[in-house]
Amino acid sequence: MLTYHKVIFVCRSNTCRSPLAAEIFNRHADTDIRAESRGVIVLFPEPANPKAVAIGKSKGISLENHRTRQLEEKDFSEDVLVLVMSDKLKEGIYADYKEAVNIYTVKEFVNETGDVGDPYGGDLQAYGEFYEELEDLVSKVIARLNSEA
Predict the structure, then answer these.
(1) How far apart are CA 28 and CA 46, in angstroms?
(2) In whole angstroms, what is the distance from residue 145 CA to residue 132 CA?
(3) Nearest-CA neighbor of 23 among 72, 70, 69, 56?
(4) pTM summary value
(5) What residue segments make up the domains of the chain, in order of their start?
(6) Percent of the chain scored above 90 by pLDDT?
(7) How far apart are the first and last CA of the chain?
(8) Residue of 3, 7, 5 lying closest to 140 (CA atoms)
(9) Which pLDDT belongs to residue 86?
(10) How many C-beta atoms surround the C-beta of residue 114 within 10 A?
(11) pLDDT 10s digits, 93-134
């Protein structure tokens, strides 16, 4: 049985994918589990990507107050689920953080293969398409957590 008290979504810079995933999770999850987001390359706090903010706003999600946060050793524990966007990120976290546990790619956690795409550099339509994929994946994460609670 899974007994997580928190989910941390992780992407590279914590400006788009992971903050959107966390907000989608928190909006749709009917559970006491809360989601947060982190990045693996965060040199200083900065706001979310403007296109991510715009897409989020169009879906009723606010990223306007988001500030990037670096993943830290203290983020890991047996009751924290860490969901990353790619196999490369997963490998890097296990290599760089001695306390790393419970790390899965988002797709791996929901029994799918591949990485979650990155819309960076794309137009607003690309961000919208990305959002739809991410929302579907996060709903599957929530369903799995609910079924194993």
Answers:
(1) 26
(2) 20
(3) 56
(4) 0.97
(5) 6-147
(6) 93
(7) 6
(8) 7
(9) 98
(10) 11
(11) 999 999 999 999 999 999 999 999 999 999 999 999 999 999
50-58 and 17-28 helices cross at what angle (nearest 10)?
20
Q: Does the pLDDT of residue 149 top 80, yes or no?
A: no
CA geometry: angle 16, 58, 13, nearest 5 deg? 5
DSSP string across 43-76: SS--PPPHHHHHHHHHTT---TT----B--GGG-
CB 73 within 8 A of CB 99: yes
- Say how many residues make up the chain: 149
Position 2 confidence tier, pLDDT thresholds 50, 70, 90: low
CATH of span 6-147: 3.40.50.2300
Q: Is 121 helix (H, G, I), strand (E, B) or coil?
A: coil
